[in-house]
Fold this protein.
Amino acid sequence: MLALYLRELRVSTRAGGGALTGVLFFLAVVATMPFALGPDLNLLARIGPAVLWIGALLASLLGLDRLFQADREDGSLDLLVMAGERHMLALTVLVKCLAHWTACMLPLVVASPILGLILNMQPVAIGATTLTLLVGTPAIAFIGATGAAVAVGLPRGGVLVSVLVLPLAIPVMIFGVSASYAAINEPDPFLPPFLILAALTLFLAVIGPAAAALALRHASD
Amino acid sequence: MRLIAENLGGERGGRMVFSGIDLSLSDGGALLVTGSNGSGKSTLLKVIAGLLPSASGTLRLEDGGEQYPTVGSAAHYLGHLNAIKTSLSVIENLNFWRDFNGDDGLDPLAALESVGLGAIGRLQFGYLSTGQRRRASIARLLISRRPIWLLDEPTAGLDAASERQFSTLMQSHLARGGLILAATHLPLGLAGSKELRLGEAVDA
């Protein structure tokens, strides 16, 4: 399983892997925001966490459709499914999700404090948003795996994956943003929404790979 | 070990491509599946591998023991696609399959030697020619031990010398008590293999 994780990381960081596409998109979305909204520093600081979350959510949708499609195109997917007796398929999917998260979504989390500065966010808000992104983005990867597995047979499944995944990812974003705001708006408690966000991630870590494995097993034709 | 299929049927896109296939293959046995295009050779192999559900009939593996409860777990599947990442080097790819499928066979380097690719292990897989890609994929079969080899057009793209080399590899697999099921148009040079012709017994 470690071998699978390392292989996925290598594939996505080598040429054509697309690990940087997400970060560049994230950068583009957030960096254009101040130009569009104008130099109102208070406004930027107020909407900062939400902008970062929207940018990160959309950026993480970018590479999702390739999660299983690349494996299907070169025939690896059949072998991964066949190895189901040795390595439970849901576990294989989980490892692929984690590798995808490390390669494509962790860079977004790392970039978010720098982009927070562009949006004139306070240090506490930057810290809280980065922390919620760190905890919340794996959930998007797990939901995404399900969407990618359902759409794996379609040649241009990217749009369908986004449409399938976006509504399911909305709760993750709601709790991520509300926890980030709670860190700066005094009376609101930070912990409850943050814990619900963590619970969502853990819940989806189980449901997502299991559903994706089920879809993959019936996807081969 | 014994692979038995009774009255096996397979469908593709809602259409029966073959039905009523009975086959039984035991240690050291080879079966060549032949037939015209679209007669269901690949579908049969996929059904046996467990990648497609069978439309009718049963498929089972006898005496597989605890290690091999199903046909899929006892089988190597070499399909039309090579299951190798083009952005990684040949040896990285093979090392991955060794770690993932088990290292009870040859060492990846030794496996590459035996398919005649010893010199290009470090090369990125994407730079290989079609025949070399096929050979690298064949090397994967040697790395992890599986008693059953399911081969779909295994010699597609291979030159005459590589075909002979591959036939030697298959013979030594059979000599160790392995089973081979190959869908092919070309003779694979296996003495004593049985043949299953698809496309004749099936109603259109």
Remarks:
- Residues 2-197 of chain B form a domain with the Rossmann fold fold (CATH 3.40.50.300).
- The CA atoms of residues 6 and 22 of chain B lie 5 Å apart.
- Chain B has one domain: 2-197.
